[in-house]
Amino acid sequence: MVATQAPITTATTVADEILKIAKRQGKSLTPMQLMKLVYIAHGWSLAILDRDLFSDRIEAWKYGPVIPTLYQATKRFGRDPIPHDLIEDDEPSPLDPEVQAFLEDVFSKYGDLSGISLSNLTHRPGSPWDQRFCDGVMNIEIPDDLIKEHYLGKLNELQGSSAS
């Protein structure tokens, strides 16, 4: 395992929290946007917080990194905005305040981007998806080590550019 702490929850719970953040801001998300936001949040969490957000498997599919469990939970919405929470309950978020604030930050940076724009971010040459995708081959895992390395590189670039 990459991170120093055990994963907090499932990708679906993280997705549900992102949907709640979007709803509070009067925004809606399509399954593609949500999938990419959860993946990006996981990558930044590995780099910044040094922890997994979830333990669900991430795979390199034709159209980018996909979390199969989250795909199964959202595919019924097609390309339409997701109209409600994925987890039907009135319980408070099981996520700790640090993770909730972290997801708010990720959403403030990426939440206005379209599904295509988010997808383009995850498809860049050298990205974990680019390194693992093999056309016609299914179920290729994108390991957390590779995702963490990628986002640490992005973090170092950001820190380097702010130091100059």
What report would you give on this structure?
The chain has 164 residues and is mainly alpha-helical. It has one domain (11-163). The chain has 7 helices and 2 strands, in the order H-H-E-E-H-H-H-H-H. It has a two-stranded antiparallel sheet with strand order 1-2. Strand 1 and strand 2 form a beta hairpin. Helix 1 (11-24) crosses helix 2, helix 2 (31-49) packs across helix 4 (97-110) and helix 2 crosses helix 7 (144-163). The longest helix has 20 residues, at 144-163.
Distance between the termini: 34 Å
Following the backbone from N to C, one meets helices and strands in this order, namely HHEEHHHHH
Please outline the major beta sheet.
Answer: 2 strands, antiparallel
Q: Regarding quaternary structure, how should these chains be classified?
A: single chain
Strand content: under 5%
Numbering strands along the chain, what is their spatial order in the largest sheet? 1-2
Number of domains: 1
Mean residue pLDDT: 90
Number of helices: 7
What structural class do helix, strand and pairing data support? Answer: mainly alpha
Low-pLDDT sequence parts:
none
Helix content: 40-55%
User: How many strands appear in the DSSP assignment?
Assistant: 2
Radius of gyration, rounded? 15 Å
